[in-house]
From TrEMBL:
Source organism per UniProt: Cryobacterium frigoriphilum
Superkingdom in the source lineage: Bacteria
Record's subcellular location: Cell membrane
Lineage, opening ranks: Bacteria, Bacillati, Actinomycetota, Actinomycetes, Micrococcales
Record has Transmembrane helix as a keyword: yes
Entry's Gene Ontology cellular component terms: plasma membrane
SUPFAM superfamilies given in the database record: MetI-like
Topology term for the membrane: Multi-pass membrane protein
Name this protein carries in UniProt: ABC transporter permease
Length: 331
């Protein structure tokens, strides 16, 4: 073999090894450069994460550790103190002005009327009867008003046709339905329930419509992208998102139901209609017993406040807390 060929044959592997070494060195340099760039950019990524966490903390409602006893006292003590103050002012007026007892009875006379009604079991029967009617009528109104509200919110032609009528029914005093209900159903419990429904259903339906109107349009788009049907969109997306407004409608519906119930019980007496708080109020009026009238009014007011504090207020606080809509001081 010629010397030149031997030299080229021996030199080729050495050149290949040299080229591989140069490539490895270049790759290592590129890797080190990328690592240096990543290390340089790492503080930036950490800063973005800290900024994102800070924005989330601004939206979150800070927890205020309070026990159940403290929350109960915060909700119960202020109304009790106000009630005591009003009773003291009332008694002071009786002592100073000395009005006629048959026109302005004092707190002691009203309390005596309550004791008398309790001793004869009239008060217990009236409270239980009215609560049973009011609760059943309200649940039926929820079952009727919720589908109507969803239909109005999701179907524009139906809303344009039925919306003004429903708003008019909400404005109409429910006591106006009592004479017609007596003619249709007679002196039965159906008359009372009809009046309760006519007072509560429009408020519940309009409350749900108002809640649906406040839903961000992005939620509907997400439901559409995920393939939700029209029924799934209404029940799984729209209704949960509209819960704050819907719950406000439920509270207003209960208020209308309770007032409608009292109006129906005052006017529709006799027959198979049971003895409720409205009937008790009407009997005291017929006997010109102003102490009994005021005592019954206080019981009606107390029952309404009790339902608000025990049932609606805790649910509303929990709902708003989960949505981040309640200030820490109100928890």
């Amino acid at each position: 073999m010629p010397p030149e060929t031997t030299t080229r044959t021996l030199t080729a592997p050495a050149a290949a090894d040299s080229a591989a070494a140069d490539f490895a060195a270049a790759d290592a340099a590129v890797t080190d450069s990328a690592a240096a760039d990543a290390a340089a950019e790492a503080p930036g990524h950490d800063e973005l994460r800290r900024l994102e966490a800070g924005l989330d903390s601004l939206q979150a409602v800070p927890e205020t550790p309070r026990g159940a006893v403290r929350r109960t006292l915060d909700g119960v003590v202020p109304p009790i103190l106000l009630l005591i103050g009003l009773i003291v002012a009332w008694q002071a007026y009786i002592v100073i002005a000395r009005p006629r007892p048959d026109l302005i009875p004092g707190p002691i006379d009203v309390f005596g009327a309550l004791v008398s009604a309790w001793s004869s079991d009239r008060l217990q029967i009236a409270v239980l009867t009215s609560l049973e009617r009011g609760g059943a009528g309200f649940l039926i109104a929820v079952a009727i008003g919720t589908p109507i509200g969803l239909l109005l919110a999701e179907c524009r032609p139906v809303r344009r046709a039925l919306g003004p009528l429903l708003s008019g029914l909400q404005v109409l005093p429910s006591v106006a339905w009592v004479p017609a209900a007596i003619i249709w159903f007679g002196l039965t419990d159906a008359t009372v329930y009809f009046v309760v429904l006519m007072g509560a259903v429009p408020s519940i339906a309009n409350g749900l419509v108002s809640g649906v109107d406040q839903i961000p349009p992005q939620l509907r788009r997400v439901g559409t992208v995920l393939g939700a049907s029209r029924l799934q969109m209404a029940t799984l997306v729209v209704l949960p998102a509209a819960l704050p407004g819907y719950f406000s409608g439920l509270k207003q519906g209960w208020a209308f139901a309770w007032r409608s119930l009292m109006a129906a019980e005052i006017i529709a007496m006799g027959g198979t209609i049971g003895f409720g708080l409205g009937s008790m109020l009407q009997q005291s009026r017929e006997l010109a017993d102003l102490s009994g009238v005021l005592a019954t009014i206080l019981v009606i007011l107390f029952v309404g406040i009790l339902v608000e504090l025990v049932i609606f207020a805790p649910i509303e606080r929990r709902l708003l807390r989960r949505r981040g809509l309640m200030a820490a001081g109100l928890r």
